[in-house]
Specification:
The chain has 252 residues and is mostly helical. Helix content is 71%, strand content 0%. The chain contains ten helices and no strands. Helix 3 packs antiparallel against helix 10 and helix 4 (67-91) crosses helix 10. The radius of gyration is 23 Å and the shape is globular. The relative contact order is 0.16.
Length: 252
C-alpha cells in the first residue's frame, strides 16, 4: 500500500459520529451531564447568592430603581452569546470550549490567549468567591453560636487568608475528583442557594405586605424604562454590572 493510499484513509475515532467533523473522541464522555445536571451546573456558574451579594448593591447605586430595566437590557447580549455557545457546542462539542473553538477558527495564538484568559479569570473569580464565603462563614458561625465576636474573625487578616486558602483548596479537590463529584456537590449547593434566596424573597414580600419593611418602595412601571436612568454613564455602568450578573453562567 502506497503512502498516498494510507493518508487517504479516514482517521480512526472512538466516536464514529464525529468522523465527518474531524473531531477526536476525547473530552467529556457522552451523557455524563444530563439535562438536570446541565441546568444545575449552569445555575452554579451564575452563583445567584454570590452574584446578588457582590453586584446587586453596586448596580442599584448606579441606576437606582431602574434596575429591572437595566437587567433586561443586559440580558439581550447574553442570550445571544448563549445561543452562540449552543451552536458551537452542537457543531464542535469539546471540553476545551473557547480554546478549541478559537484555535480552529482563528489559529493557535488566539486560542492560547483565550484559554489563558479563562484561567486567569477563574483564578481571580475563585479567590473573590472564597473571600466572600469566608466573611459569611464567620457571620454564620456568629449566628449559630450567638457569639458576635466570631463574626469579627473575618477581619483578622492572617486567619482570613488561611480560611480562604482552605476554601480554594477544597474547590480544587472537588474539581480534581471529576465531573460526577462536581455535579453531586453542585446539586447540594444550588439547592441550598435557591432555598435561601426563596426564603429571603418570601420574607421581603411578607414584610412589605405587613408594613414592616425597611424603606419599602412601591413598584412602578418606570422601573422598566431604561431611558429613565439619570445619565448615560450611569446607564453604561449599570449595564456592565448587569452583564456580569446575567452573563456569569454563559462563560464556557
Amino acid at each position: 500500500m502506497s503512502p498516498k493510499e494510507v493518508t487517504a484513509q479516514p482517521p480512526s475515532t472512538t466516536d464514529p459520529g464525529r468522523a465527518d467533523k474531524g473531531l477526536s473522541g476525547k473530552g467529556l464522555k457522552a451523557g455524563a451531564v444530563g439535562l438536570v445536571g446541565a441546568v444545575v451546573i449552569g445555575v452554579s456558574c451564575i452563583a445567584p447568592a454570590y452574584t446578588l451579594t457582590a453586584a446587586l448593591g453596586p448596580t442599584v447605586s448606579e441606576v437606582g430603581v431602574q434596575l429591572p430595566a437595566v437587567f433586561l437590557v443586559g440580558f439581550i447580549p447574553m442570550i445571544l452569546v448563549a445561543f452562540g455557545y449552543r451552536e458551537l457546542n452542537n457543531a464542535m462539542p469539546d471540553a476545551g470550549t473557547s480554546f478549541t473553538w478559537a484555535s480552529r477558527a482563528f489559529g493557535p495564538w488566539i486560542g492560547w490567549m483565550g484559554g489563558w484568559g479563562l484561567i486567569a479569570a477563574t483564578i481571580i473569580v475563585l479567590s473573590n468567591l472564597a473571600a466572600v464565603a469566608v466573611d459569611f462563614f464567620y457571620l454564620m458561625l456568629a449566628q449559630l453560636f450567638g457569639n458576635p465576636e466570631l463574626g469579627e474573625l473575618s477581619k483578622n487578616l492572617p486567619l482570613n487568608i488561611a480560611t480562604t486558602l482552605v476554601f480554594i483548596a477544597l474547590a480544587c479537590w472537588i474539581s480534581y475528583r471529576g465531573m460526577e463529584t462536581t455535579k453531586g456537590v453542585q446539586y447540594v449547593l444550588v439547592a441550598f442557594q435557591l432555598l435561601v434566596l426563596g426564603w429571603f424573597a418570601v420574607a421581603a414580600f411578607s414584610h412589605v405586605a405587613g408594613g414592616t419593611a425597611f424603606d419599602a418602595t412601591a413598584i412602578s412601571p418606570d422601573w422598566f424604562n431604561p431611558f429613565a436612568v439619570g445619565s448615560f454613564s450611569a446607564f453604561a455602568a449599570g449595564v456592565s454590572l448587569s452583564i456580569f450578573i446575567t452573563g456569569a453562567g454563559t462563560s464556557p
